Each structure stands twice: as C-alpha cells, then as structure tokens.
Amino acid sequence: MEKMKQPKIMRDFLIYLTTIKGKSQRTRKEYEYDLTLFFRFHLAIQQDRTVEQVMDISSITIEDIQAIVLEDLYLFMEYCEVQRGNSAAARARKVATLKSFFKYIKGKRRLIEENPADELETPKIGRKRPIYMNMEEAQQFLTGISSARNYCIAMFFLNLGIRVTELCELNQSSIQGRYLTIVGKGNKERTVYLNDSCLQALKAYKESKTTVFKGADEEPLFISQKGTRFTRQTVAKIIKQINQQSGLQKERLTPHKLRHTSATMMYKAGADIRSLQHILGHSSVATTQIYTHIENEELQQVLENNPFNRLQE
C-alpha cells in the first residue's frame, strides 16, 4: 500500500522529533499515525466526507493549521472515543501528539499566535497496578530455560529491570567491567551495576555462543540464531515459550512483566525510590512510585504485628 503523502510541516515535525527531541522510531511512527488521522478527520469535516474517503492529506496548508481552534480538537477526540472506540489511554496518546505538534508549530516555527492545544485536557487514565511474578513463580519460570543465552536475557530482565527495547539495543561495548551502559528513552544513558548473577550468566552465554553476527553495524550483545540483532517481537516469543515450557503458564507474561517483577522485588527488598528510578530509567519519580504498592496480605500482617494488638491478650 502506497504511503500517504504528508504536508511538509508535518514531515518537518517528525524529523524534529527524532533528530532534536531524540524520540525513538517507534514513537515517531505513533505520532505520525495520530497526526495523519487528525488531518484526515479535519479534511473530512471541511469537505463533508467520511474519514475513510480522505486518503490524501498533502493539501493541508499552514493557513489550514492556523484556522484550527480548540473546538476542532474536541471534535476529533469525540470522534476517536465514539466512532473509533479508543480507550482513555489511546486518546491520551493522541492528546500528547497534538500538544507536541502545536507546541512545535508555535514555539519553534512561530507559525501560529495562539496554541489551540494548550487547553486540551488529557483523559484520565486509571493507573493500573503492575502485574508481576512472585519469587516462587520467578523461580519456576527460570526452570523453563534451556539455553545460556536465554538464561542471560532472563537474568538481565529480573536483576536490572531493563526494558525490552533497551535489551535489544545492547552492544558488546555496552559492558565495561561490572558496569552496563543502557541507552533508554530519549537516548538518555544510564549506567547500572552488574551483580554476580548477571556476570555469571553473561560468562556462561559468551562461553556457549557459537553464532556469528552477520551485520555491518556494531556487534550486539545478544544475537539471534540467524546472526542478527534481536527484535522486541522475538524476545517476546522467547519469554512466552519459557513461560509455557516451565509449566508456569502465567497469563499474558511479557518482557515488560519481567521488568515489573524486578522492580517490585527490588522495592520489597528495601530499594529506595530514587535508586529504583535510576535503575529503571524513569524520567519522573511518579512513574517509579507505582511499585510502592504493598500486597493486602502484607498490610494485614503489619497491623496484626502492631504491639498494641497484644493489649487484649
């Protein structure tokens, strides 16, 4: 299918996202999708057509964008909710896209005097409690691993709380002694300490490795059987396979759930929230605070153990 032609200002914005703001290609594609849908909707309204009938947005001009007001954005958000059935999370992403785009148009390009997205509210998203494995489940999960490479991957997830994209992008040069340099969101680097479990797993993986990297770029730390760098989808398949082979068969177990498991266990073991924020690579401590939940059973035990509870005895 031929890619839809874009207005120049939209192309400029997408380039700005990756080259200046350091956004990932994945984030860029999400913003591109959201803006394309918005401009298709905007043209459909102007031309009294359906969104499905609008397949070319290249006609959008700066004058068209200057004429957009807050009510147009509200109308688009209503369309996303009612017609497309978008969840609050999906709509929140579209709001973030529109805010970023109009901020660029006004602040960087000086093409509009008033930013219509300034007053656009973000839909409230109920913060979900992280889904994770307890210690017994994690130990059972590890029994389903049959290769030193996959065991090393699991150790990095469970010990370091690394993101799957970060794991895929690790290179041989990322390791300096006992320290690992991770490139996170927005190309922000952080250095984390490799504990004994990680080092032992890494040593076993390197000793067992027979696959040769076939690419021309810098050699990845983890190489697929085809001799290529891992993709997020491949790692997800590996985790799913281990979940089944271990007999654990925990529902919807993904690499991200292993990250949740790592963070939750570190917090329960006494990690302070600031240290956890650095290890996980969160830009805001508010994101890290989702791991400060404590199980109801543990709270009940704390209250049971309160010395004043003994007064009735």
TrEMBL record:
Matching entries from SUPFAM superfamilies are given as:
DNA breaking-rejoining enzymes
Which Pfam family name is an example for this entry? Answer: Phage_integrase
According to the lineage, what is the superkingdom? Bacteria
Q: Which UniProt keywords apply?
A: Cell cycle, Cell division, Chromosome partition, Cytoplasm, DNA integration, DNA recombination, DNA-binding
Q: Which InterPro entries match?
A: CB (IPR044068), DNA_brk_join_enz (IPR011010), Integrase-like_cat_sf (IPR013762), Integrase_catalytic (IPR002104), Integrase_recombinase_N (IPR010998), Tyrosine_recombinase_XerCD (IPR050090)
KW Cell cycle (keyword) present:
yes
Localization recorded for this chain is:
Cytoplasm
**Classification via PROSITE patterns:** CB (PS51900), TYR_RECOMBINASE (PS51898)
Q: Which residues form the Core-binding (CB) domain?
A: 4-106
Q: Where would you say this protein principally sits, based on its record?
A: cytoplasm
**Tyr recombinase domain mapped to chain residues:** 128-304
PANTHER family with a match to the protein in the record: PHAGE INTEGRASE-RELATED (PTHR30349), TYROSINE RECOMBINASE XERC (PTHR30349:SF77)
Identification of the protein by name: Tyrosine recombinase XerC
Organism ancestry: Bacteria, Bacillati, Bacillota, Bacilli, Bacillales
Gene coding for it: xerC
